[in-house]
């Protein structure tokens, strides 16, 4: 297993998640950007899993990237199927929110995106034995067990 690159992916995932959490303090609330950072964090948490198990994460801008990553993680461990609903929920935020679209979001969407992202975070970090040095996700120096 490869822990070095995996830790870097996790650090980047935490940066996206921390950015989303920080944006919650802004008014007007940038819902689209919060949702986007949550989707990006989930992608990076899943890529960390693939790297940890010596799998090359795909470099893609696929509209369903987070779902595809979840499927790849299921090949490593079928328990990743538990994340399927979270990945499906986060998928529209990967691309649709970055450009003008008919997708109308409100604060409840940002709360939902954060909840789903944290489910992915908790599952992946538990699976990889990755514990934040601080419970504050804005602290980056994470450690692997």
Helix content: 55-70%
What's the arrangement of strands in the largest beta sheet? 1-2
What's the gyration radius in Å?
14 Å
Biggest β-sheet description = 2 strands, antiparallel
Low-pLDDT stretches: 137-145
Structural class: mainly alpha
Topology:
Elements (H helix, E strand, L loop, with lengths): L2 H21 L7 H22 L12 H12 L7 H7 L16 H22 L1 E2 L11 E2 L1
Antiparallel strand pairs: 1-2
Helix pairs in contact: 1-2, 1-5, 2-3, 2-5, 3-4, 4-5
Characterization of this structure:
- The chain has helices at 3-23, 31-52, 65-76, 84-90, 107-128, and strands at residues 130-131, 143-144.
- The chain is mainly alpha-helical and 145 residues long.
- It has a two-stranded antiparallel ribbon.
Summarize the entry for a quick read.
The chain has about 140 residues and is mainly alpha-helical. Helices cover about 60% and strands about 5% of the residues.
Features of this protein?
disordered C terminus, 145 residues, 2 strands
């Amino acid at each position: 297993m490869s822990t070095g690159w995996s830790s870097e992916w996790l650090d980047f995932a935490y940066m996206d998640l921390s950015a989303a959490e920080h944006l919650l303090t802004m008014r007007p609330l940038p819902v689209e950007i919060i949702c986007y950072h949550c989707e990006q964090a989930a992608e990076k948490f899943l890529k960390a899993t693939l790297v940890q198990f010596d799998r090359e994460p795909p470099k893609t801008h696929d509209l369903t990237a987070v779902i595809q990553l979840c499927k790849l993680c299921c090949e490593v461990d079928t328990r990743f199927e538990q994340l399927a609903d979270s990945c499906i929920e986060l998928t529209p935020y990967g691309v649709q929110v970055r450009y003008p679209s008919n997708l109308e979001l409100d604060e409840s969407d940002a709360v939902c995106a954060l909840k789903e992202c944290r489910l992915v975070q908790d599952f992946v970090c538990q699976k990889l034995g990755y514990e934040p040095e601080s419970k504050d996700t804005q602290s980056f120096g994470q450690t692997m067990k």
